[in-house]
Every structure is written in C-alpha cells, then in structure tokens.
Design goal:
heterodimer; A: 274 residues; mainly alpha; MetI-like fold; 14 helices; flat; B: 254 residues; alpha/beta; Rossmann fold; 2 domains; 6-stranded mixed β-sheet; 3-stranded antiparallel β-sheet; 9 strands; binds adenosine-5'-diphosphate; binds magnesium ion; Nitrate/sulfonate/bicarbonate ABC transporter ATP-binding protein (chain B); ATP binding (chain B)
C-alpha cells in the first residue's frame, strides 16, 4: 500500500475566508433579524388562516378597521390614557416596594423568615382573584386596577431582587465592612448596582404580569379603560372590537419592552461592555 | 501613634460541632508606631484568619485584641486583599471614594495623590475591567493608603501577580511606605518578600502559635540585588526549614 507515504493535510478555513465564500443573500437569510421577521410573518399567516377558517376569529384587516373606528369615535385616548395611568402607578409602586422588601430579605435572615411564606402565597394567587377582591373592596374607579396591578406584580419583583441580593459578592461586602462603609452607602453603591440585572428582570415580569391585573380589574370594574372597552365589545358580541383593544395594548407592551426597557437596561450595564 | 495589642488570641472554627478546628492557638504580640511587620507561615496556618480577626470581619474565640490611636478618634484601618476587590461598576477614583468617610474636595485630592503615587494618575476614570490585574491591585493599595489608616493590613497582595509585576509593586510599596510611614501588618508565605519589606517578621507555625519573632535591621531602600539582603533572606529561609522539620506537634521555640 502506498498510503504510508501520503501526508494528510487538514487545512482549516479562516472566518474571513468563510465569509467571503458565503453569498450575501444567504448570510442575510440566516441572520437573527431574518428569524425575527420570519416569526412575525408566520404569526400573521396563522392569524389570517384562522380567521378564514373560523367566522368568530376576526382577521388582521378587520381588527385594524375596528381600531380605526374606535379612534374616529374618540374612544382610544381617554380609555388608553386611564389604563396607562393605573398601570404605571401600580407597576411603579410594585417596583419600589418590591425592591425594598427584596433587599431586606436578601440582607437579613430574620426578614427572609418573615416574608418568605406571604410572598409565596401572593405568587400563587392569580390576577383574576385580586381583580374580584379589589372590585369588591374598592368598587369602580382607579383604585381597584391600581391595587390589582400592584398585588399581582409585586411578588415577582421581591423574589427576583431577594435572589440577586443574596448573590452579592461576599468579598465585596467584607471589604465594605472592613472600611466601615455606612450601610446606606453599601445598599446604594454596592447592593443595588449588583442586583440591577435582577431588578430589571423583576420589573419586566411586573409589567408583563401587571397588565393582566389592570385589564382584569377594568373588565370587572366599570370605570373605563382598555379592559372596560374590550368587555363592552365582547358583551356586544363584536369580536373585532374586542381584538382591536387587545392588539393595541399588547403592541404597546411589546414596544415599551423593546424600545424603553431594553435600552434602559443596556445603559445601566455600560460598565460591563467597556 | 497606633498600638495593636494581641494577647493569648485563639480561634476555633465551628466551635461546638464535630467539625471544630482550632486554627489559632495562642498568639501574643504587639505592634506600635511606624513599623512594617510581616506575618509569615506556610499556607493554611491561619494568617488570613488572624488578619480578619484584627480587621473585625472575623470574631475571635478567646483572648484579647485591641487597637488604639491617640488621635482622639477610633483607629482607622486600611486593608489590601489578595484580590483587588473593586466595584466593577465604579471608576477607579470613585472606588477609592467609596471607602472614605469624608466625600469632600480635599479627600478627592488626597485620593488622586495616592493614585499618582502608584502610577495610575491617568486612569482615574477607568473602570476596573479596563485595567490589568497588576493595575487593579495598585488601585487596591492606593485605596488603602488614601484612608490614611492608623493600621494598614495586607494579605498576600502580590501572590496573584506574575514575578515581574510583583517585584515592581514591592519597590513601589517601599517608596509609598517610606513617604507615609504607616503601621503595616503584612501577611505573606514568601520569606524572601518578607525580608525585603519588613522591620520585623513574626513566623507562624502550623497549629497556630508563634514560632519566632525576628528583627530585620537592614538599611532602606532595599534592593533584591544587594548581597546583604540576599544573605539575610537565605538565613531566615534556613531557620524556617528547621521549623518544618519540627512538625505540627512540637512546642514553639521562641
Ligand atoms: N470560615 C472557615 N470555616 C472553617 N475553617 C476555616 C474557615 N476559614 C479558614 N478556615 C481554615 O483555617 C485554616 C487557616 O486558614 P487561613 O487563615 O486562610 O490560612 P492562610 O491564610 O495562612 O493560608 C485553614 O485550614 C482553613 O481551612
Ligand atoms: Mg490566606
């Protein structure tokens, strides 16, 4: 056999060489952005198909039409505004209170023992229960959607923040105490920046869970808002109008997450990229 | 002037459990004034534990420990750790300010002065992640000096660095110490380093007792290339070799 004298050359291609040999259209088709666009398109496609198959599923075109009509009636800004106001206050409260309790739970085992069970119970109560209860307690008005938003979202902030605080570097905390850094400064400059990622995750959860709360409370309450208006169409057996409001609000949450939260988080972590 | 007094100090971890281990058995020494004291001993003999007890991070099991300053205020301590321990989201200068009581202009100016002494004046606004390991350690040293401590504790600050960087930093430390004349307790497992830096070397033996207390009377600044330094280094090393042969069970000689 002559194979003994043959050398095997395993020549590996460099990244620039691979890039040069891949056509541009193929690179574009396999990009992350293409995947995102594909997801959006398939969602629309499924929606259109469902609306063609089932009479009671309104298609995208109809939903946009209904939305246009609501705008023309002048229903959108007032209702959307009051929902945003309630939602904003509820989430803001949940963020502040959640961070405070979470930091306490992370730093002291005594407060962890105290808050652990209540938080667990609160986590497992669905938004619809809070919506019923608050409408019973506070009636129709701003208070029940605000409290529902707050109560459904606060445990998620607490759990995330507490977990983050417990993960703060022991070494850095020892360093702080050898230098007698005041506790308030330790919380502000060591603990909070260290848990910024957990806070961001908690607030994101709060927003996504909280909007269930606000819509449900408005659905059962009667004080106007996106949930109220969606129910109005639902009761009228007009699913196009119902879907229009849901799409409006979900779209808003997605855009908020993408363009505000995501950017704010990236700004907060500048030090990581430098 | 600061006085550190340690008397019959003992430390047992996990006291009252089956895992109890006595790390420090009976430690007595005193450090006063502008001296550079090294605590030397093999890995695991309790050097870091002793330093953490002095700094207050760790509690002692029995014995006495006190630090007094005659400035009419509680004594201040600085600590240089084995690793830099900087907040990654704060710039170098803001890391130094983090440990300062006073946040005023004068304190900022002082922090900048020490940063200049360790050769990092230009890096005040850098994040720790933008510095090399040696530079980060220099920030840790500047931070400790900048609190103007009555007692400066250092725990093997150069052991994670490469030999060339470590040698440069030792020379720099000698310079800064000569200018500021603090009371320093410096922990190391490296006898050669201890002889180069210290006025006095306390040798810890496994089992947590003091084996020997050696005065180092050499002129400063000390150079590695100086034969008298090298001779003394060899001599102290030989004495420690003798300790190793005594083993764990032997009574202390000193
Ligand atoms: N928190 C702790 N719990 C139990 N044992 C410990 C603890 N910290 C240190 N030790 C033990 O004490 C001994 C001395 O540790 P250390 O002071 O770090 O030694 P050195 O700094 O001299 O290398 C080691 O055997 C170590 O395992
Ligand atoms: Mg150690």
């Amino acid at each position: 056999m002559s194979t003994a004298s043959q050398a095997t050359v395993d020549r590996r291609r460099s990244t620039s060489e691979i890039e040069r040999s891949t056509p541009a259209w193929r690179r574009r088709l396999t990009s992350d952005r293409a995947a995102r666009v594909a997801a959006l398109l398939s969602f629309l496609l499924v929606w259109v198909l469902l609306s063609l198959l089932f009479r009671r599923v309104p298609g995208p075109v109809e939903v946009v039409q209904r939305l246009g009509e609501e705008f023309a009636r002048g229903e959108v800004f007032g209702n959307f505004g009051s929902t945003l106001y309630r939602f904003g206050i509820g989430v803001a409260l949940a963020t502040v209170v959640g961070i405070a309790i979470g930091v306490l739970m992370g730093l002291s085992s005594l407060s962890r023992a105290f808050f652990e069970s209540p938080v667990l119970v609160a986590l497992s109560i669905p938004a619809i229960i809070w919506a019923f209860l608050t409408v019973m307690w506070f009636g129709f008005g701003d208070l029940s959607p605000i409290v529902t938003t707050f109560l459904t979202s606060v445990p998620f902030v607490v759990v995330n923040v507490a977990q983050g605080v417990r993960g703060v570097s022991r070494d850095l905390r020892d360093m702080s105490s050898t230098y007698h850094v005041p506790v308030s400064r330790q919380v502000r400059d060591l603990v909070l920046p260290a848990v910024a990622g957990y806070i961001a995750a908690g607030v994101r959860f709060a927003i996504i869970i909280g909007w269930n709360g606000v819509l449900l409370a408005e659905w059962f309450g009667g004080g106007g808002g996106v949930g109220y208006r969606a129910r109005w169409w639902y009761d009228a057996n007009r699913f196009g109008g119902f879907a229009a409001w849901v799409v409006l609000f979900v779209g808003f949450i997605v855009l908020l997450d993408r363009f505000v939260l995501d950017r704010a988080i990236r700004r907060a972590f500048r030090w990581r990229d430098s | 002037m600061a006085v550190l007094t340690v008397k019959n100090l003992a430390k047992t971890f996990n006291l009252g459990t089956p895992r109890a281990s006595r790390v420090l058995d009976d430690i007595t020494f005193e450090v006063r004034g502008q001296t550079f004291v090294s605590i030397v001993g093999p890995s695991g003999c309790g050097k870091s534990t002793l330093l953490n007890i002095i700094s207050g991070v760790e509690e002692h099991t029995s014995g006495e420990i006190s630090l007094t300053s005659d400035e009419g205020r509680p004594a201040r301590m600085g600590y240089v750790f084995q690793d830099p321990r900087l907040l990654p989201w704060r710039s170098v200068l803001r890391n130094m300010m983090y440990v300062q009581d006073d946040q005023g202009e004068a304190t900022v100016a002082r922090a900048r002065r020490y940063l200049d002494m360790v050769g990092l004046a230009k890096n005040a606004d850098f994040y720790p992640g933008q510095l090399s390991g040696g530079m980060q350690q220099r920030v840790g040293i500047a931070r400790a000096f900048a609190v103007e401590p009555d007692l400066l504790l250092m725990d093997e600050p150069f052991s994670h660095l490469d030999a060339i960087t470590a040698r440069g930093l030792r020379a720099q430390l000698q310079d800064i110490w000569a200018q500021s004349k603090k009371t320093v307790v410096f922990v190391t497992h490296d006898v050669v380093e201890a002889v180069e830096l210290s006025d006095r070397i306390i040798v810890l033996q496994p089992g947590g007792r003091i084996y020997e207390d050696i005065g180092i009377d050499l002129p400063r600044p000390r150079r590695q290339t100086d034969p008298t330094v090298a001779t003394l280094q060899a001599e102290v090393l030989a004495r420690l070799e003798a300790m190793k042969e005594l083993g764990r069970t032997t009574e202390p000689v000193a």
